[in-house]
Amino acid sequence: MIEEFRRYRLDRHQAATAWKEQNGGKVVGVFCCYVPEEIIHAAGMLPVRVLGEHEETTEADLHFPINLCPYCKSCFDQALKGRYDYLDGVVIPNTCNMIKTMYGFYKLLLNTPYTRFLDVPQRISREGVEFFTQELGRFKKSLEDFSGKSISNEALYHSIEVYNENRTLLSRLYELRRSSPSLISGFEAQELVITSMLMPKEQHNRLLSQLLEKIEDRSDPPRQGVRLFISASMLDDTDFLQLVEECGGNVVADDMPMGSRYFVDSVDPSDNPLHALADRYLNKIACPRKMLPDDRIAFTTRMMNGANIKGMIIHNMRACDPHLYEYPLMKEKIESGGLPVLFFRGEETETELEQQRTDIEAFIEMIKD
User: Fold this and answer.
1) pLDDT at 2 exceeding the cut of 70
2) Quick one: pLDDT at residue 123?
3) Is the pLDDT of residue 64 over 90?
4) How many Cα atoms occupy the beta-carbon half-sphere of 303 within 13 Å?
5) What's the DSSP call for residue 60?
6) Burial of 244 from C-beta contacts in 10 A (0-12 / 13-18 / 19+)
7) Strand pairing class (89-93; 114-118)
8) What is this structure's pTM?
9) Got the DSSP string for 216-281?
10) DSSP state, 114?
11) Which domains does the chain show, CATH number per domain?
12) DSSP 197
């Protein structure tokens, strides 16, 4: 049944186009974990995460310098090549400098009908939550103007309920991965998280509920390896985790935007919906863009607790300054606690993945010895 999720990820463009034809709704692309998809969902639209690909960035290289975030370049390259022409809109939050730059390029070079910059505060604070609540009100109004339909509080509460259900299901999935023996592999779990960013949430909830019942009764768990933790800036496919597990690792927990950071901690359903969304998306997402290293390390430790981790692999995308700045302290703190750390800074090209294989195999053998 996991194959069904994998096929959906690989065929995501065709699936989104089919959804538009069947439902007559609009599809809105989003970048980063900071966009409250619940508001888009409440507007009757389908939010989908914009992803890159393992291919040469021929079009984006005409506009971006070489030494910039490979993920952002790949995403924009896909848009310039027409792969995302079905998008009716795109929401770009105020996160890192490269993603902010994407807003200007989208406005200048692409004809997406709705292009919205979401002003996410730079700091975690009470004032930041209040500002973000007001910004989400403006975002909601812009979606209403675009769609021609109002977004009621009832619709927002319903969307929060649907998304919270998805977070609960993904948390259950991660507990099955942390169990001993692990009942699902690391790359299979990541496949399910990424697909939740692409598939209509109601459909994902239904399929994931069915899959969890089968996994909990699984009599043939995946091959068990050295239990590892992955911390990453951006891994928008499952190739790296699959490589780690081919080398004898078993990824049982993670700290990744395309992993635990996406779904950890629910939205408070008893609060005003926009304030509750602002609180969750600003305060609960553990990103170094707005969180000091000690708080980030506390989140990482929380994700590792009880998982019997034997080693950590840190993978930071080249030119991802927020993650690269925190790496030395992260490495020092983790190693002082007795865990070995392997570090990669790269682009996730096919060639680079094979070059990493030797280092991963040596790291796992060292842990075994």
Assistant:
1) yes
2) 85
3) no
4) 29
5) G
6) buried
7) parallel
8) 0.94
9) HT-SSPPPP-EEEEEEES---SSHHHHHHHHTTEEEEEEE-TTTHHHHSS---TTS-HHHHHHHHH
10) E
11) 23-151 (3.40.50.11890)
12) T
